[in-house]
Amino acid sequence: MLNGGNVVLIGPMGTGKSTVGKALAEKLGWTFVDTDAVIEEKAGTTIGAIFAEQGEPAFRKMESETIASVLQGETRIVSTGGGAVLAEQNRKAMKTSGFVIALRATEETIIMRVGNDENRPLLQGNAAERVRRILEERKHAYDFADFTIDTTDKPVEVIVDLIVSRL
Ligand code: S3P
């Protein structure tokens, strides 16, 4: 049950965190925040450029700072980057400030949705192979969520209704 906390969406790339987050925020009349978008706005450049020019550790630092700051104050729907759950401090911030929902999808769906995206630096090169490896490496990384929804064959409205019914 939700006690006035944030709703935090976690899950691998391409599982629909931003799309679902936006639709959920609209339905509830809440503010929506996408941490990757906040990072890009603050840095004045793309996630791809941050990885290329400053490296992944610099991105992870910005990501942790962003998560800490957006989970304070006003209650929001927050969608996070797929790797945000790797840092314990981020998991803690998510757990203590809200209801955590994990989205999942099949490997094929993820590859179809984001395999060609040039702004997903971790998928450059052989995207299918990279998705496979990331899913394997992060197999249990999203297990701490309060509940999990498979978005593979579900329209956004159905996913939103499922979430609302659990809040
Ligand atoms: C990442 C996922 C991306 C973005 C960055 C790293 C990851 O977010 O934060 O490219 O480590 O899985 P999405 O999950 O929104 O694609």
Automatic annotation (TrEMBL):
Subunit structure: Monomer.
Cofactor: Mg(2+)
GO molecular function: shikimate kinase activity
Protein role: Catalyzes the specific phosphorylation of the 3-hydroxyl group of shikimic acid using ATP as a cosubstrate.
Co-factor binding comment: Binds 1 Mg(2+) ion per subunit.
Location in the cell: Cytoplasm
CDD domains assigned to the protein according to its UniProt record, in alphabetical order: SK
Binding site for Mg(2+): 18
Similarity comment text for this entry: Belongs to the shikimate kinase family.
Catalytic activity: shikimate + ATP = 3-phosphoshikimate + ADP + H(+)
The protein's enzyme class: transferase
EC number(s) from the headed UniProt entry: 2.7.1.71
Pathway: Metabolic intermediate biosynthesis; chorismate biosynthesis; chorismate from D-erythrose 4-phosphate and phosphoenolpyruvate: step 5/7
UniProt entry keywords in alphabetical sequence: Amino-acid biosynthesis, Aromatic amino acid biosynthesis, ATP-binding, Cytoplasm, Kinase, Magnesium, Metal-binding, Nucleotide-binding, Transferase
Protein name per its UniProtKB record: Shikimate kinase
Amino acids binding substrate: 36, 60, 82, 138
UniProt binding sites for ATP: 14-19, 120
